TrEMBL record:
UniProt feature coiled coil, ranges: none
Native species: Streptacidiphilus monticola
Residues making up the signal peptide according to the UniProt record: none
Lineage: Bacteria, Bacillati, Actinomycetota, Actinomycetes, Kitasatosporales
Matches recorded under Pfam families: Aminotran_5 (PF00266)
Pathway: Cofactor biosynthesis; NAD(+) biosynthesis; quinolinate from L-kynurenine: step 2/3; Amino-acid degradation; L-kynurenine degradation; L-alanine and anthranilate from L-kynurenine: step 1/1
SUPFAM superfamilies recorded: PLP-dependent transferases
Domain Aminotransferase class V: 123-355
Keyword Hydrolase appears in the UniProt entry: yes
Protein name: Kynureninase
Subunit structure comment from the entry: Homodimer.
Similarity field: Belongs to the kynureninase family.
């Protein structure tokens, strides 16, 4: 293992001065709590954009407050698809008509997995990662119990993630669906999305990708990489707000066959016909179920606009630079104190956070938060340092790491 050189505070301040994305920090609400040294948990909940607060106010006073129910026919009905198309272009590499803003991540994942299994009749297995995010595994377990399927669990290194070879070893003519996270929530390991997708397709299986820790942080090319289905939240790097709705991607070639299990009037061919029998809408809109959450959707819209303006490639470049700085400081300051880097050291394999691990991480995480360094703890021993390029500064992060050293 080669240690990454640490930088000084003055060097971090120089990086802030040269940061082409630095001005975006002024577009977000500053926390009123003067005790916050650094907010490094944007990989769990992004900070609020000022434009979102203005949009909510306009929504309450204008569209909702003045137009009332008429606003549904004056633009609200089209928002799930319109925002989905903007998100697809800005961050997902998806052509129009394949992304829609819908329900929570768990509900969207359930819809996609059930639909994917139905598209592979006679196949009886789902392949996934045992260390995937809990909600993903709970949804998989529930569907397996519901349909009498077998789950083939891949045991991955918690400090790394799933590989193409590991997936290939579990694939067979019995595999209906492979479902994995593109970026591991613990370690930030970036899976080989195109390689794994191709391996699954070679066995006739479909793939459902969880992009919760990818979207708005690293470039994704869903169309070019042949992805079948994808889901992701909007309240992390997209800064959509707490509980903001998730998105669904359904590849155009699958949409006619796609039959999601939660039939609701907004996913029907003509919601206001009030017909007794359900007929799915054409295209991506059939992924919807109930009434779209407009207040949440406008938050997603503003977050997507910021990502589009900044450019996903520039966002990625800054995330890599921040991650390299954190690892360098951890090597020099924290490694002698028993802290190890529990994320990939290769920048091309690391997403938008760096996990630092030590046995007393639960207590250490609490001390950090109490001291104004807002991070999060993930069992058994991980402290995630979340690096959100639109809101995280280099000097801010340097000071947080210095506080980490003092408290360790």
């Amino acid at each position: 293992m080669t240690a990454v050189p640490a930088i000084t505070l003055s060097e971090a301040e120089r990086l802030d001065a040269e940061d082409v994305l630095g001005h975006f920090r002024t577009r977000f609400v500053e926390p009123a709590d003067a005790g916050i040294v650094a907010y490094l948990d944007g990989n769990s909940l992004g900070r609020p954009p000022k434009a979102t607060l203005e949009r909510w106010s306009a929504l309450g006073r204008g569209e909702w407050g003045t137009r009332l129910i008429r606003a549904w026919s004056e633009g609200w009905m089209e928002l799930p698809e319109q925002i989905g198309d903007r998100l697809g272009q800005a961050a997902l590499g998806a052509a129009p008509g394949q992304v829609v803003i819908a329900d929570s991540t768990s509900v969207c994942l359930y819809k996609l997995l059930r639909a994917a299994v139905a598209m592979r009749p006679g196949r009886t297995e789902i392949v996934t990662d045992r260390h995937n995010f809990p909600t993903d595994n709970y949804v998989v377990q529930g569907i397996a119990a519901e349909l009498g399927l077998t789950v083939r669990w891949i045991d991955t290194d918690p400090d790394g993630g799933v590989s193409v070879d590991q997936v290939a070893a579990e694939l067979s003519e019995r595999t209906a669906v492979v479902t994995l996270s593109h970026v591991a929530y613990r370690s930030a390991w970036i899976a080989d999305l195109p390689g794994i997708t191709a391996a699954a397709h070679a066995q006739g299986a479909l793939v459902v990708w969880d992009l919760c820790h990818s979207v708005g942080s690293i470039p994704v090319e869903l169309d070019a990489d042949g992805v079948d289905f994808a889901v992701g939240c909007s309240y992390k790097f997209l800064n959509g707000g707490p509980g903001a709705p998730a998105f669904v991607y359904v590849r155009a070639e699958h949409q006619e066959q796609f039959r999601q299990p939660v039939w609701g009037w907004m996913g029907g061919a003509d919601p206001f016909a009030m017909e007794h029998g359900y007929q799915p809408a054409t295209g991506i809109r059939r992924a919807l179920s109930g009434t779209p959450p407009i207040t949440g959707m406008v938050g997603v819209d503003e977050g997507v606009k910021l990502v589009a303006e900044a450019g996903i490639q520039r966002i990625r470049e800054k995330a890599v630079a921040l991650g390299e700085m954190v690892i360098g400081l951890a090597d020099e300051w924290l490694s002698p104190l028993g802290v190890r880097v529990a994320s990939p050291r290769e920048a091309g394999r690391r997403g938008g956070h760096v996990t630092l691990a030590r046995d007393d991480a639960p207590d250490l995480a609490k001390r950090l938060i109490d001291a104004g360094v807002v991070i999060d703890f993930r069992p058994p021993d991980g402290i995630r340092v979340g690096l959100s390029p639109l809101t995280t500064g280099f000097a801010e992060t340097w000071r947080a790491m210095e506080k980490f050293r003092r408290l360790s």
